[in-house]
Amino acid sequence: MIEIKNLSRKFGHIRAVNNISFKVEKAEIVGFLGPNGAGKTTTMRMMVGYLEPNSGSIMLDGKDIFADPLGTAARIGYLPEHNPLYHEMGVVEFLAYIAALRRMDRSFYQQRLEYVIDKCGLEGVLNQRIGTLSKGYKQRVGLSQAILHDPDVLILDEPTSGLDPNQIMEIRELIKELGNEKTVLLSSHIMQEVQAMCDRVIIINKGHIVVDELKENLSLHIDGSQRLILEVKAQQPDLADWLFLYPQTRLLEYSELNEVHKFVIQTTTEEDLRTALTSFAVEKGWAIQSIFNQNYSLEEIFHNLTLHDPAAGATIENEETEELEPEGIEAEEPDTDKLENQADEEADQ
Question: Whole-structure pTM over 0.85, yes or no?
Answer without folding.
Answer: no
